[in-house]
């Protein structure tokens, strides 16, 4: 690692309607270094990178790439300057092969035809340089996520990129794939390629990063060398307060058994899951992305047709073959993806809240009771303090936190006795998070059994009384939240069994 | 403060204009045509227009519901012909009572629609493909059943539905407005209607809200088949003949009416009031151009241009 700066971002400010997403942020990247960009959800990491490659226009500040001030109008220009971003969602074409993807739009031609011989040779060269063992003729759809990511990186390198931004590259990788990725990163460093590594996994940061820049609420908190810091300091910088005030002091009052799952299995999704849930408790489910947490919840909620095993509700065996069956029996599920699975964005707040209970409030057994529907919507708008001009406002015009409250209102309208919350605080601001935590306490106080799925370990640790940890479609173990810690959870989540 | 309220008023007016833009378009068209042709704005001519529009309008209502769920149905023209032929055959060849024959014709159309619905909802096949296949299959059935020849010569009872009058109003027009009212209420006031909009807006979310989305979609396609059958029976009655090639190309007219009426092709927003106005715009345009002695070749071009222009303006207004 030299001392030459390949990228400098100075005093970057970016305002969106109503929010200052970035406030005088600084970031520098040296040649051949791996520099971590750390911060909580909404801290401004992604926005900063979007300002860098021209997707967002900055309001103020300066960007200097290899000594020249730049103003990228679009990603193409950023690419030409040697900048490449590997996104969390990979942008490859599944039905084309590796070589065709890497050289898409830049194919060697013989007359009007693609020179395939040359194409495969070039691809093989790039892959070999990176020490990646992938067949250039393999179709992308046949590769696992880890290999697809390698292809994405190879594509960037083949475009002579010397500044790579990796946005949460390990979020959907297995341990083994992560090891291969880290080896590749080491080789990229040797080629004097500089890497911006966005992650919130501290252990990875300490493993491969040279320096760390921390952002919080759109502001630059500090820049430190990894060798001169520790996890506690970084967490403090990220959170800006001690962990204790982020969460309410939860009080549990576990009562009788309300949900018992025995040997639940779904082909390709869940292997033999068994667990218990009591009234008045929060059962946390931790695990890496893709470990089967969401699938387990959905299996209980009746989303999958093909499944084996038994589900008991208050000791009575249930046949749950659809979400409708689950809701009828008092089991409700909040999806991790509110836009895709939670809301009908083009319909009003009231319609979204009432949809699950519409048929329980009919006039003349046929017509929607508009007055009752309005009353229901207004009750939840008040109870959950949903900020909306009226119950007839379209949901798409609400902020993330308020949209989430609308989905939760829909859940509560069914008067559930078991509530499964899948990433309930994803992408919402700190205030709304706190309100959702308080709501969980309220549910517990009312004897509801709550299952909490979250990628944020502190959330699982602080809000649950018991924790299940999943790894590759299996429940690896159960921990008592009171004396569990992040390391213990991570060990199980990465496949090491409880000793 | 004054400024603010006048601003608000201006916004309100714009909003109202935007909401009724299809109706305003129709009105403008009517005003222009009534200046261009003295015959246009006469009661007989207007009744003629609504009678002509009734066949397409009724299938457009079904098409509106299908499109609201995010689907499409290309088989309405063929289902219309099949139901008409079955009804005619039951009366003429089998000598059945007219009402029983109509019942069988309606059941036939509903059954074809039901099949479409099951293939789309349960077998998860794309609606475009399923109904494209049904378009050919139902047409084939019709030709097999009729041996490729028209079935004609009905009594007064059957002729009433297509050619009769209630006072001065043609019966098909009465049926059309009745169905418009029923489907409007269904879409706006019943859970089924709400679910139709919800499925078009976000099917996954609707399913996870505990709604049996498959059942709703099947019902919508079946209802669409039923409405195609109603149209087929009216057409057969009006022409006094069931033509094996009846209703060819009607699916495109119906889709055009739905789109002109402001229903989004991706589903989730729109409604039947817009659709009837859309169907009327096409009918008024055809009628006006006829009165002005414009050749039917040019009429085709004009119709296409109007559809393109309307959808373009709709997009523009939505972006703002």
The number of helical runs of chain B is 14
CATH superfamily of the largest domain in chain A, by name, is: P-loop containing nucleotide triphosphate hydrolases
Largest sheet of chain B: 2 strands, antiparallel
Number of strands of chain B: 4
Low-pLDDT parts of chain B are 1-5
The portion of residues forming beta strands of chain A comes to 25-35%
Oligomer: heterodimer
Task: Estimate the helix proportion of chain B, in percent.
Answer: over 70%
CATH topology of the largest domain in chain A: Rossmann fold
Content-based structural category of chain A: alpha/beta
- Helicity of chain A, as a percent range: 25-40%
What share of the residues of chain B does DSSP label as strand, in percent?
Answer: under 5%
For the biggest sheet of chain A, the summary is: 6 strands, mixed
Architecture (CATH level 2) name of chain B:
Orthogonal Bundle
Low-confidence stretches of chain A: none
Give the strand order of the largest sheet of chain A, numbering strands 1, 2, ... along the chain.
Answer: 6-9-10-3-11-12
Q: Into how many domains do the coordinates of chain B divide?
A: 1
Give the rounded overall mean pLDDT of chain B.
Answer: 92
Task: Tell me the distance between the termini of chain A.
Answer: 41 Å
Structure description:
The complex is a heterodimer of chains A (499) and B (320). Chain A has 499 residues and is an alpha/beta fold. Chain A folds into three domains: 5-241, Rossmann fold; 246-330 and 416-498, P-loop containing nucleotide triphosphate hydrolases (Rossmann fold, 3-Layer(aba) Sandwich); 343-413, no CATH class. Helices cover 33% and strands 27% of the residues of chain A. Chain B has one domain (42-319): ABC transporter involved in vitamin B12 uptake, BtuC. In chain B, strands 1-4 form a two-stranded antiparallel sheet. In chain B, strands 2-3 form a two-stranded antiparallel sheet. In chain B, β2 (165-166) and β3 form a beta hairpin. In chain B, α7 packs across α11 (213-239) and α13 runs antiparallel to α14 (296-319). The longest helix of chain B is centred in the C-terminal third of the chain and has 27 residues, at 213-239. The radius of gyration of chain B is 21 Å and the shape is globular. Chains A and B meet through α10, α11 and β20 of A and α9 and α10 of B.
